[in-house]
């Protein structure tokens, strides 16, 4: 693992722990509305999660976190990011932060849901709430 990725992971775990907890709480509220432990409506997962993140102010905090962790890693962003694509994207798995910096692109995933693929190819994938939110950081 490279030093910038270690620094970003450390910063998220320490200084942005409450944001991770908020993403986790938002994902719990989304999944609590389902009739079962999973759903096949990926669009509803995205829309509901985005709404919860906006309602709690977490969407804007994700943007601010991106600015902070890029600076903590010793890089500068070429422009001020906004809480919309391409910087902050809400997917059916959870929010993703992206920043293009000098050595490449930082990608920080907050995976709150997992995709469960069915062996029968005619059935759509399902989305299930993970036990917590997994953070994955890469420099591509």
Automatic annotation (TrEMBL):
Q: Where is the DUF7988 domain?
A: 6-140
Q: Which Pfam families match?
A: DUF7988 (PF25950)
InterPro entries to which the protein is assigned, alphabetical: DUF7988 (IPR058294)
Q: Which organism is it from?
A: Natrarchaeobius chitinivorans
Q: What is this protein called?
A: DUF7988 domain-containing protein
